[in-house]
Amino acid sequence: MSTQASTAQPSYLVDTGARKGLLAWLTTTDHKRIGLLYLYSMITFFFVGVGIGFVMRLVQLTTFQKLITAQTYNALFTVHGVIMIFLFVVPGLPAIFGNFFLPILIGAKDVSFPRLNLASWYFFMAGAILAVLSLFTGGGAPDTGWTFYAPFSLKTGTNVSLAVFAAFVLGFSSMLTGINFITTIHRLRAPGMKFFRMPLMCWALYSTAWIQLLATPIVAITLLLVILERFFGIGIFDPSKGGDPLLYQHLFWIYSHPAVYIMILPAMGAISEIIPTFTKRPIFGYKAIAFSSMSIAGVGSLVWAHHMFTSGMSGMALMIFSLLTMVVAVPSAIKVFNWVSTLYKGSIDFEPPLLFALTFIFLFCIGGLTGVMQGALAINVHIHDTYFIVGHFHYVMFGGTGMALFAALLYWFPKMWGKMYSKKAIYVSWFPMFIGFNMLYFGMMILGMMGMPRRYYVHLPQFHTMHVVATVGSWLLVLGLIIFFATLLYGILKGPKAEDNPWGGVTLEWTIPSPPPLENFEVIPTITRGPYHFDQQEKA
Amino acid sequence: MNETLHSPDHHPYSLDEPHVEHPGYGTFIKVWAALVVLTFCLVGLSHVSQSYAVWGLLTLTPLKAGLVFYYFMHLKYEGSLFKIVILVTLGTLLIFFALLFSDVAFH
Ligand code: HEM
Ligand SMILES: [Cu+2]
């Protein structure tokens, strides 16, 4: 309970402790500040990743180019993949918005283990620094692709060991965050905040946290085995020593497929918050969305081998995993139907967060449906390891999670900084971003259908036209990203003051000041009903 | 856990129900002997043929692990919630094994 008298608490952005400035931030245990620490570091990594993607696309502007060597290209896509996956999309929404908003959404003052929370951020940064070190030490930047497939990852002279160890350390950050969120949701809900009264973002974070906690140790151990194999030749994956390289693929994907749900579930959670707010309607099918999050987490853990259809797995396994993959599409589709039904006959405010939420739905549908295509065995054999896959996963991870992260950023921005960005500039940034995105990644999918393999540093003349289209698309996309983030940065520094509830939202974060006070609530609220009731506002 | 705050009967699922009587050294030694015997069985099986070795590993090793869990790690004396959690975990593990074997067993 709050011990607060009538005087309002200062905002969390004001240093109230003994330490000031940077030191206060680096030693903070406030979930909101930790969320921002993650945000700033991740956006930095994201732009490094974007820069590398941009360079890779430049390279494809010429056929049989001499700009960079094959080895350099291998290093580029590996580092790009590692950064984007391990430092951006996997931790992205939970670490930033989960940290910042989970406690607020359930009416708590902080997460269960605030210090562990800070420790997670340090694990995250340590992993990131190790990953960067791996580029410049040992045999140089790893060239295995972000998947570190054995036996190549065991044989290559590049610094795979350190890169893999970096991913191992990052895993700890993920697990600790998972433990923290699960405990927070179980123990710190405000009085009356029953499970089925939680905003859907909390359900999404809850199911994600279980995956983080249960799946991450598998990849951690697998990666450790790669290191042991490289140093001591224990022969678990190396076929020349009696090991089984397919075992590596199994173990890797047992984590890494669920990891795509770590990426997408919180994104779906954020969308489920945004859509009711801008349609002023309770979400259609609350329980269906909540349960679909849990069933995606469950069934999604059993489909990993759809990444291995051409690896020489048994026919039996092929059929089982193809079937299970189709099944997991169902709960995802349920969510899409529910969002669209919520929009139907809603009173829609077409604000920037909704624009990006709709962009998410559109791009995610393309990504998801092409995913189902790949789940079909006969098709998969033809498009495996082509640009089709590269197009597909950028639609899901960037068009899906990336866009949802942008939408969430636009939605919660006024709450987080107490400032407002220029909506006009955001609309302006959307056009090049959206057009460029589709030129780039739809172009890649067409290239894949034509037969262009992925991870090649040159291409044959018949692929040239589409490669040029894709590269020009990447310029537009990067332009859009720059306008977008410049707008937000300007908003943080110079934006006008935001209201406490600029969008007319009804979840708890909109009942407290912008930016929130240090302990979020002066008095812990008592909850008497579900999260999306707009009737009170209509009367007002 | 809040041992001082809640009495066990208010907390039917408490992880720390009062420990019933602990086993004596006799039990531990018997279990240990059983583990040694099982180990010899496994080694023996591995000399018969590879498939015997694999089936032995798949059946006897979980049994050994079970004994260790149950007696040495005191699972036997834990509350029901704890046991359920472990069962669910093992069930999950079994599903994963089954799926992996859908590949390995049909090569
Ligand atoms: C402007 C932004 C981006 C551009 C231009 C870009 C471009 C590319 C290119 C050219 C490749 C290599 C294709 C190949 O030769 O196989 C690639 C691979 C990849 N990208 Fe991106 N990308 C961008 C953003 C992203 C984002 C936001 C993510 C994740 C959220 C992402 C994740 C990946 C992954 C995982 C790979 C595979 C790496 C590997 O093969 O090991 N990319 N990207
Ligand atoms: Cu997958």
What does this protein structure show overall?
- The complex is a heterodimer of chains A (540) and B (107).
- Chain A is an all-alpha fold and 540 residues long.
- Chain A has one domain (30-539): Cytochrome C Oxidase, Chain A (Up-down Bundle), CATH 1.20.210.
- Helices cover 67% and strands 0% of the residues of chain A.
- Chain A has 17 helices and no strands.
- Chain A has helices at residues 21-26, 31-59, 70-89, 92-105, 114-136, 152-155, 160-187, 200-232, 245-279, 286-299, 315-343, 352-375, 377-383, 387-417, 423-450, 464-494, 535-539.
- In chain A, helix 14 (387-417) runs antiparallel to helix 15.
- The relative contact order of chain A is 0.12.
- Chain B is mostly helical and 107 residues long.
- Chain B has two domains: 22-73; 79-107.
- Chain B is 67% helix and 0% strand.
- Chain B is built from three helices and no strands.
- Chain B has helices spanning 25-48, 50-72, 80-104.
- In chain B, helix 1 (25-48) packs antiparallel against helix 2 (50-72).
- The longest helix of chain B has 25 residues, at 80-104.
- Chain B is flat and about 50 Å long.
- Chain B starts with 24 loop residues before the first helix and ends with a helix.
- Chain A binds chain B through residues 214, 246, 250, 254, 302, 305, 313-317, 320-321, and chain B through 92, 95-96, 99-100, 102-107.
- The complex binds protoporphyrin IX containing FE (HEM) and copper (II) ion.
- Residues 257, 260, 306-307 of chain A line the site of copper (II) ion.
Low-confidence stretches of chain A: 1-6
Helix content of chain B: 55-70%
Helices and strands of chain B: which structural class?
Answer: mainly alpha
- Let me know the largest β-sheet of chain A: none
Q: CATH homologous superfamily of chain A, by name?
A: Cytochrome c oxidase-like, subunit I domain
